[in-house]
Amino acid sequence: MKTLIVCATKIESERLISEFGMIQVRENLFSAHKLQIDLLITGIGVPATIFTMFADVQLLKYDFIINAGIAGAFETNTELGTVVNVVSDRFADIGLKTRNGFLPVFESEFNSRFHNLLNKGFVYNTSDYHSFFRDVPKCKGVTVNIPEIQMCQSADVETMEGAAFMLVCKQFQKVFVQIRAISNVVGKTNRKDWDIKTPINNYTDLIIKFVTKYNNNET
Question: 40-78: buried (b, 16+ CB within 10 Å) or exposed (e) per residue?
Fold first, then answer.
């Protein structure tokens, strides 16, 4: 099973690169050939994610794509480090000002060509991803540049790339999963109080267990 792991930054991926003995094959791409695993570092944000996934890899050759990274939670009682499976995501702060208020860009009539990939503005993971990840707590995500509570009332977590990742995977009809771990509570945790190390270690441990258990050869 040829697998691609997608991370936004080097810090979110460096332990995976080390654990799997990956070598750098291009500026943003690392590979562990014996395990049939590649890792792509996209950069942060929607434009970087979409561009890098289209330009720097051949997505069609992968059987399974994993997005791994940190996320902010909207619930104040969420424990930092918690790993979640984001099964739906949406673009919340890219849009148009209309007479009826703010309209997310992918929900406008001008982007009707994308409506087959979304359902009422949400990108859903309808792929038949590996059963190993189905017990990870499921949640709704929202992709934003600057989190604002009023934009995200129906979301559990916020990311900066999740919806972009999922949209590209849907377009290519790939099997995928978005795994995130909580680094902060949106609007409640000062940046200096964010826990970066624990969530990275937690989702890395999960992915290592997946690869170890299935030897990356079974579906």
Answer: bbbeeebebbbebbeeebebeebebbbbbbbbbbbeeeb
3-state secondary structure of 157: strand
Structure pTM? Answer: 0.91
CA distance 81 to 94: 28
DSSP string for residues in 41-102: E--SSHHHHHHHHHHSS-GGG-SEEEEEEEEEESSTTPPTT-EEEEEEEEB-SSEEEETTEE
- Give Cβ neighbours of residue 186 (< 8 Å, ≥ 6 apart): 72, 73, 74, 147, 149, 152, 158
Query: Tokens 């480090």 — which residue?
Result: 81
Domain ranges of the chain: 3-214
User: What CATH code would you report for 3-214?
Assistant: 3.40.50.1580
- 108 by Cβ neighbours in 10 Å (0-12 / 13-18 / 19+) ranks as middle
Q: How do residues 168-205 score in pLDDT, each as one tens digit?
A: 999 999 999 999 999 998 877 667 778 899 999 999 99
Contact of 90 with 163, CB cutoff 8 Å: yes
